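Q: What structure does this chain adopt?
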Amino acid sequence: MNGWRMAMGGALPVRRQLVGFAAALVLLPTLALVLSAFRSETSLTSDALAFQLLVVVVAMIGGLWPAVLTAVAAALVLDYLFVAPLFTVVIADPVHALALAIFVAVGVLVSIVVGQADRRLRAARELAAEVERQRPLEAADRMRTALLAAVGHDLRTPLAAATAAVGSLASTDVQWSDRDRSELINTAEVSLARLGLLVSDLLDASRLQAGVLAVSLEPVAVDEILELVASDLDVPFEVQSTDATDLLADPVLLTRVLANLIANAHQHAGSTPRVAATRDGDAVSLAVIDSGPGIAAELRDSVFEPFQREGDIASTGIGLGLALSRGFTEAMGGTLTASETVGGGLTMTVVLPVAP
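A:
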């Protein structure tokens, strides 16, 4: 009953119904003129089928009311122009009345089917749109859950260490030696520095997710970037080659990307990472190469997801380093991919455009 009521009320949009009315006004006279030119005593059946087909077409285009109008008009035109006696309308004749009823019934039935199909299509589109709207919310929920887990351990650990060190220094119950005092101060400094880095990574991750990360692109020399990385890191690395021209990048972001990749390679490979810069057409590739155990091919994409750490073991971070590195690289218009090092290990390759 609901489908019937909606069909009778016009399930199709008003614009589509107007198109149906326009189609009826154009096609009905055109069909009548064409069939009149080939009219004969034996063509009545084919003429009736042609008008019936027109009713079906209009019903598919505009739905119920255009189909009803076309059915009535088609029946009258058929009776007037093609049924003897010509140029008269004899609706009172039971045969003519039955033909008119059939025309209208076919139009109504087709329009009901079309209306139901259109409603299903619109419902499917609305469902798909709702699923698309829910995806960012689900991603945000996953990020929030992972963030709470990170806060529960990784942020609390350096905060607790710094608090304990400062609290011990402030205590008057114990007389600390110079060596002990120096160790407590060093513990507080290291813990607070680590806490600052973690908070900075979290803020950058939120900016990336919100799409509000500030990026300032400019021509950058590869040698200069590697010097900045060396000054920021206390991790050794080798420069294998710098056979490349200047690239277009944000110096601050690119320095952080390379520093993250080199530090990560040193931590997990247990050997000195190598950096190689090469030019390929309009792009410059910066490869951070290690000879460690590497990562299985099916897991290489997952390491770039936020809050992912190899083996889910405790580390000095919260699993944002590689995620931020890829996010920073893509924000600069480049790519970051992982591949196997020839002979064993992992190679992280940053590809950025050549500076104009």
